[in-house]
Design brief:
Blueprint lengths: L16 H6 L4 H13 L1 H9 L10 E6 L2 E6 L2 E2 L1 H5 L4 H4 L3 E7 L4 E5 H18 L6 E5 L4 H13 L2 E4 L6 H11 L3 E5 L2 E3 L2 E3 L1 H8 L8 E5 L19 E3 H5 L11 E2 L3 E7 L7 E6 H15 L7 E4 L7 H12 L3 E6 L8 H10 L3 E4 L1 H10 L12 E4 L6 H10 L6 E4 L11 E2 L14 E2 L5 E4 L12 E5 L9 E2 L3 H9 L6 E9 L5 E6 L4 E3 L2 E3 L1 H9 L4 E11 L3 E10 L7 H14 L9 E3 L13 H10 L13 H10 L5
Parallel strand pairs: 4-17, 6-7, 6-8, 7-14, 8-11, 11-12, 16-17, 16-18, 18-19, 19-20, 31-32
Antiparallel strand pairs: 1-2, 3-13, 4-5, 9-10, 14-15, 15-25, 21-22, 23-24, 24-26, 26-27, 28-29, 30-31
Helix pairs in contact: 2-3, 6-7, 8-9, 11-12
Length: 652
């Protein structure tokens, strides 16, 4: 296997003094914890679970193996009790949610208010006949009611599924057809970049041909917005407004004890060529993993104000806010809309308004802020920690963030996880362990990863290979809804006895994880296997470049060759000389064999709502002249036409 060059000469960056003071353990205790969890992950997960509320304990910590396992078998608990109820005795009036929308609308919900709304909605669902195992579909953005509805589903054991507010009617229809919900909860609309996103109208189209839905609850959120009057289409006998649905129900309703392995929710991931996969997570298993993830990757303190910028339709938000954050009694910021409207200064205004001191976001947002320049930069003096997930973080953006935000007192914690794993399982133990610019931190306690070669044999330190996980853990997705065969084929067939992440990665000599690309994105150039991250990092280290995306194109001689796309920083001018200079940058940094066929300076990239660059679509455009496969996660479809125009590609 090729030795990964991406982490060479990258120094360890120690925790800041302030975060070290907040740490729940000493450095020596943390070292012992990591060692003991490596040797005995089951005992670690038992210790974590015992920090949560249980109606009754479990019979066995782990039964079975990957593909068919049960964690905390027989144990009874409830997610909503752990996320809401257990904070009421001492913190009922503490702020749970600071909500803000891009047009300026703001609300504040306390834990007491959140509890009341959760219980009212749970009671209303039960009165309708919704019971444990019934499906509830949710089509809303980051509004306070989405917290209440999801926690209410957990309270009675209903299985929920969230479709994010950027989905088309076709994408929503596919998910409804697969999950067959009895109830759908939808906002009348959302605001994004100054425009109304007509969620209810889109849902009405998506519901055509879906016979399982008995009722649609509509949350009116556009009232009072500075938009043109937007009447809500309502179907008599099926549709009901939120206030009418919960009318007459009080602020208390008993929670249902739920067995630890019962399904909690379905979350759909985009496929490459086939329909999205409905991954099934157990409610209590996910809670356990998310609680531990927040404990180590954020180490929230009682007075922290914490903002997770992700969309509720992306699993980062449930992990780090809706479940993991609330389980720690956090004060959360929930923002609806684009954080750079009317300009990038809006992001900084929100930081300052709520005195946010801990942030969880995506590298894409940091690159956007860096590209916008430092003229907007303010209100970051309270920032202590920025944790990230979603894509590799280039070292240039790492250092810009570290040096510019928070007056140089911010710890930048890039993490790694997947929708399937239900957690970002690689991370620093915040305040206790170091990181490196561009790395994903080290393995958190309770996980047993290994990088292997084509034959499934472990590779050496520093060697690029296939990232796998050898042992089950509570938050790992248990199956694919209605398609267990696809689950086994996708995740367990490539390497026997291992969960296959489909990511190319390496561990360095300090135990830091470097995820270089999706396996499909590894470029094999004349026998050299190159992860796209290495090439993209070389480009973003150039002072003119804000973002980069590299794909591989078929080549009759070399097998494949890299093709690079870049977006320039503000004030930089496009030129053929700059393209040549950037191509040379890769050759000098990585090697002459990695020189791209071409560097294309672009104005935009196709992205998911979470900000990930959809490299597959860039490759499709260059090879086929059009995009194919599942594009339901694409937030900005106009990017495809813009790229076609910039490339001079014909529309097919």
């Amino acid at each position: 296997m090729e030795e990964a060059a991406v982490f060479k000469n990258k120094p360890l960056v120690a925790p800041t003094a302030k975060l070290a003071q907040q740490a729940p353990l000493s450095v020596l205790e943390a070292s012992r914890l990591l060692e003991s969890a490596r040797n005995d992950p089951l005992s670690y997960w038992e210790d974590i679970a015992e920090e949560l509320f249980w109606y009754s304990g479990w019979n066995h910590t782990l039964e079975g193996e990957l593909g068919n396992f049960r964690y905390f078998a027989g144990g009874l608990s409830n997610v909503s009790v752990n996320c809401v109820d257990r904070h009421l005795s001492q913190h009922a009036n503490k702020v749970a949610i600071f909500y803000e929308r891009e047009d300026g609308l703001r609300e504040v919900w306390s834990y007491r208010q959140l509890s009341a709304e959760v219980n009212r909605f749970a009671a209303a669902m039960r009165a309708m006949g919704i019971a444990k195992g019934d499906r509830v579909a949710i089509y809303m953005s980051n509004i306070p009611e989405v917290f209440a509805v999801i926690q209410a589903c957990y309270r009675i054991g209903a299985i929920y599924s969230v479709s994010f507010a950027g989905f088309s009617a076709e994408a929503v229809h596919d998910r409804l057809l697969d999950s067959q919900p009895r109830l759908v909860v939808v906002a009348d609309g959302s605001l994004r970049r100054g425009k109304v996103v007509p969620l209810k109208e889109t849902l009405d189209q998506a519901l055509e041909g879906i016979g399982s839905v008995e009722k649609v609850v509509v949350v009116p959120r556009l009232e009072g917005s500075r938009v043109v009057d937007h009447p809500v289409p309502m179907t008599e006998g099926r549709d009901v407004f939120y206030a009418d649905f919960v009318a007459g129900f009080g602020p208390e309703f008993p929670a249902e004890p739920i067995e630890a392995n019962e399904p909690g929710f379905i979350i759909y991931t985009s496929g490459t060529t086939s329909k999205p996969k409905g991954l099934v997570h157990s409610g209590i298993g996910f809670l356990t993993g998310a609680y531990a993830n927040v404990k180590w990757a954020l180490n929230l303190q009682p007075d922290d104000v914490y903002w997770c910028t992700a969309d509720v339709g992306w699993l980062t938000f449930p992990i780090f806010a809706l479940v993991g954050g609330l389980a720690h009694g956090a004060t959360l910021v929930a923002y609806e809309g684009a954080v750079d409207i009317p300009n990038p200064g809006r992001f900084y205004e929100v930081l300052g308004r709520y005195r946010v001191n801990k942030l969880f976001t995506a590298p894409t947002l940091l690159r956007m802020l860096r590209r916008a320049g430092d003229s907007y930069l303010e209100h970051t003096q309270d920032l202590e920690l920025i944790s990230l997930v979603g894509e590799p973080l280039d070292p240039e953006t790492f250092y810009w963030t570290k040096d510019k935000l928070g007056g140089g007192q911010v710890f930048v914690n890039n993490t790694y996880g997947q929708t399937e794993t239900g957690t970002a399982w690689a991370s620093a133990l915040v305040g206790l362990t170091p990181t490196k610019p561009g790395s994903c931190g080290h393995t958190l306690p309770g996980y047993v990863p290994e990088v292997v070669d084509e034959q499934g044999l472990p590779v050496g330190v520093g060697e690029l290979g296939y990232l796998t996980l050898k042992e089950p853990f509570p938050s790992l997705a248990r199956t694919i809804w209605n398609n267990p065969e696809r689950y086994h084929q996708t995740y367990l067939s490539r390497f026997s006895g291992r969960y296959f992440t489909a990511d190319a990665a390496a561990f360095d000599e300090d135990g830091q994880l470097w995820v270089t690309s999706r396996v499909d994105d590894v470029i094999n150039v004349a026998g050299h296997r190159i992860g796209t991250m290495e090439l993209e990092a070389a480009l973003t280290n150039h002072p003119a470049v804000s973002e980069a995306a590299v794909v591989g194109l078929p080549d009759p001689i070399k097998g494949s060759v890299p093709l690079a796309f870049v977006i320039l920083r503000a004030g930089q001018q496009k030129s053929s000389e700059l393209e040549t200079e950037l191509s040379e940058q890769i050759a000098q940094t990585v090697g002459s064999y990695a020189r791209p066929q071409r560097v294309i300076i672009s104005s935009t990239f196709p992205r998911t709502r979470s900000g990930k660059i959809m490299r597959r679509l860039l490759r499709d455009l260059m090879v086929e002249g059009q995009v194919s496969g599942d594009v339901s996660a694409l937030e900005n479809p106009e990017a495809i036409e813009n790229l076609r125009a910039e490339l001079g590609s014909p529309t097919k």
